Amino acid sequence: MKMGYRKKSMLAGYAFAAPGMIFAVLYMGYPLLRSFYLSFTNYNFAFDSQPALCGLENYINMFKDSYFLDSFRNTAVFTLAFFPSLMILSLIIALLLDKGVKGSGIYRTCIFMSMVVPLSLTGIIFQWIFNNQYGLLNSVLTQIFGLKSWTHNWLGEGKWAMFSIIVVSLWKNMGMLVIFFMAGLANIPDDIIEAAKIDGSNSIQTTFRIILPNLKESYIVCGVWAIIQSVKVFEQPFVMTNGGPGTSTLVLYQYTWQNAFKYYEMGYASAIGYFMGIIILILSAINMFANRDKNVDEVKSKRKRKGVVSHAE
């Protein structure tokens, strides 16, 4: 009787989980396996009837392709500037909002408002703001602050175009990380902070000795999310500069899209996509290793030592 009820419960659980599992297999599992196979083939889906196996040719040709090398370099520059800036600024804002600064409600609204604006629309709005001739930024710098020397062709010069894309990406993604960090701050017990204050710790000491070390899990979650956003940046350069001027803002994700849906080279595009996936996995692993909980490692090592001693006895 009990086994029958248990089996019915399991079948009911499988039935409820089945739609989600089917969706995951059809729209995630199959495309991953199919694209992995295509990465080892020459396949232009506009002209070729069937993929032709070519081994590692696509992966080797990537490092001979000047456009790929430019997009890889641009993605690396974007990641090195965007990732630490996003993490640090989001953490600072979360700390300030958590302390209940005056007008924090308005600040929360302004920060979180960027999350509800679609990325494509964000790119169009900032394309107008950064416009060289009639853009809002140059007008404000010239007419209000009198800083005409500070005006630039923000989207028409290579270094300023990448800088503009980084600024827009920070504005767009900061709200999400602030939420993650505030969730981590809410999980820190008040007793620990109160005990530190009783022991004579000031706000700066409490922040660096108590609060920041207790955000390890938030660093991992936020770090992985920020790494994915860094390597997979696409809409901002695509809408704002279309990879220009020249190839100064061409990024890996956009170059993958160009090969797949502009030149129809699905094999080569799949190889670049998997190369991006490997980069994300490596950077995520480094982030998780750097923010691992050392206390947990110490506990595990102590348990192992105790197990060795008890076994010897």
Automatic annotation (TrEMBL):
Membrane-crossing residue ranges in chain numbering: 12-30, 76-97, 109-130, 160-183, 271-290
ABC transmembrane type-1 domain residues: 72-287
UniProt-listed Gene3D superfamilies: MetI-like (1.10.3720.10)
GO BP field: transmembrane transport
Keyword Coiled coil: no
Main location: membrane
A cellular-component GO term for this protein: plasma membrane
Key words, A-Z: Cell membrane, Membrane, Transmembrane, Transmembrane helix, Transport
UniProt-annotated location(s): Cell membrane
Homology family: Belongs to the binding-protein-dependent transport system permease family.
Protein name (record): Sugar ABC transporter permease
Species whose genome carries this gene: Blautia liquoris
